[in-house]
Amino acid sequence: MSQTPRGSTALIAAVVALGGFLMGFDSAVISGVTSPIKKVFSLTPGELGTVVACLTLSATLAMAIAGPLADRFGRKKVLAVTAILFSASAIWSALATSFISLVAARLIGGFGVGGALIIAPMYIAEVAPSDRRGRLVSFNQLNIVLGFSAAFFSNYFIEKAMPQVEGAAINDAWRWMLAVEAIPALIYLFALFIVPNSPRWLAMKGRREEARSVLAWAGGEDRADAELQEIESNLTAAKTGSRPGIGELLHPRMRFVMIVGLGLGFFQQITGINAIFYYSTTIFELAGSGREASLEQAIYVGLVNVVFTVIAMRLIDRAGRKPLLIVGTTLMAAALITTGMAFKNATFHPEGQRFENAISGLPAPAADALRGMAGETFEDQFAFLDAVNARVEGVADAATIEKVTGSAQDIAKGALRINGLMVLIAIMAYIAGFAISLGPVMWAMFSEIFPARMRGLAISAAGFFNSAISFMVQKLFPVGLSSYGPDMVFFFFGGMAVAALLFSAFVVPETKGKTLEELEAELIGAN
């Protein structure tokens, strides 16, 4: 295509940020299928964690190479490859016939997630005028949350169209939930044809006139020459050194920006955002909701995410990055601790229809023994499960005992009595806090704080670390629920949110209203 773009920076940013939409959709769609695939493939908590987290594992690997590949081949070409990977993953996941094939399909999607997550905000930051950069980069975060919300809606309506009958064999609704992503992925692939190459990448490759054309279109003729001269001066200065290597990220001049980047990457994930998104239906089922109600509540979470991300987009270039971080992490900490308290105050009553549904699939001797617990009350999940095991061990054989152990979480959910409304409100408040702080601000700052010569490598390193923490949280979340209980898991996330608040208040710098070159001189040149 011609390198003389037509349209607006907002339109181009919106198109490129569709990669974020696919990333959000691919990530959130799994929340609607965790219960069915656990039963279809007889997954343990650890295996379920693997299915959910494996996408992040390959995304982590993709982040390690996405920046350098984008520097070599261009941001646009890498984004086109991600669209193809999203399509292939969606179709393969829907057709999976085993635990291994489902993991393999999600690994393919993870490579698309990693590439889109790193390159889309990098591209937008490089094409956007400095006075609108924060808002336009936030398009990517907005599209991520729109993707999350779209997945929640899609899961809910597919479930409504193909409801699961209690006690019947698992139907194919979960396969359709996974397959539908192929549609927006193909739309993204074709939409990328209207996108120009990044002006900074064009200048890096010596394509000066094309770079100037993009800059003139994005910021006006009056600013194009000055911006191009500034970019070229920066690149010329960078060429006096050797090719950037991973060791340079450890140089004392890079120390502060790496601490900020890695710190934001760590706190964005260790506060539990992807555990809550990816296991949202599991959390709401733990809080007493049925499957359809849990899918509906996930929609509320998605809508809150969209609304507060839009609010953040309007405020990020006005209020600044740091104030949003402080307000948002404060709200996150309060909401997570409240959720932990709700689960801590829950009780277990082994009776009623929900409990009967939970034990209906067990062999008769075990189910009858558990029905004999009616009228008892337990203040703690582990005390309840110990009582369950004691009842079953006296009447059942080893195979039955093993089946009861494998169904322990479902049995506990059936007996749980909790303030579900408090959990729902607290989770929505947490999402609101995240959506105005660590969600959009981290990616905006990734695109701003690193020097031009090192930007691709540094963003890949910070993204790699962020994704590695995400993988750990997703993988261990089901294990944490079964080993420590939901109350302790949410208290841990709440403690991490308090630490994120302190980091934001005392370490993170303000970057609003400054060009990338000004930030480089301030954050790197002064060190």
In short:
The chain has helices at about 10-15, 20-30, 35-40, 45-75, 75-95, 100-125, 135-160, 175-180, 180-190, 200-205, 210-220, 220-240, 255-270, 275-280, 280-285, 290-315, 320-345, 355-360, 365-370, 380-395, 400-405, 410-415, 420-435, 440-450, 455-485, 485-505, 515-525, and strands spanning about 345-350, 415. The protein has about 525 residues and is an all-alpha fold.
Give a verbal description of the structure.
- The protein has 27 helices and 2 strands.
- It has helices spanning 9-16, 18-28, 34-40, 45-73, 75-94, 99-127, 133-161, 173-179, 182-191, 199-204, 208-219, 221-239, 255-270, 273-278, 280-286, 291-315, 321-344, 353-359, 364-371, 381-393, 398-406, 408-415, 420-435, 438-449, 455-484, 486-506, 516-525, and strands at 347-348, 416-417.
- The chain has a two-stranded antiparallel ribbon with strand order 1-2.
- Helix 2 (18-28) runs parallel beside helix 7 (133-161).
- The longest helix is centred in the C-terminal third of the chain and has 30 residues, at 455-484.
- The protein is elongated, with a radius of gyration of 24 Å.
- Mean pLDDT is 84; it is low at 1-7.
Report the portion of residues in β strands.
under 5%
Describe the sheet with the most strands. 2 strands, antiparallel
Question: How many discrete domains?
Answer: 2
Number of helices: 27
* Neighbour order of strands in the largest sheet: 1-2
- Using the CA coordinates, give the radius of gyration: 24 Å
List keywords for this structure.
527 residues; mainly alpha; Growth Hormone, Chain: A; two-stranded antiparallel sheet; 27 helices; 2 strands; disordered N terminus
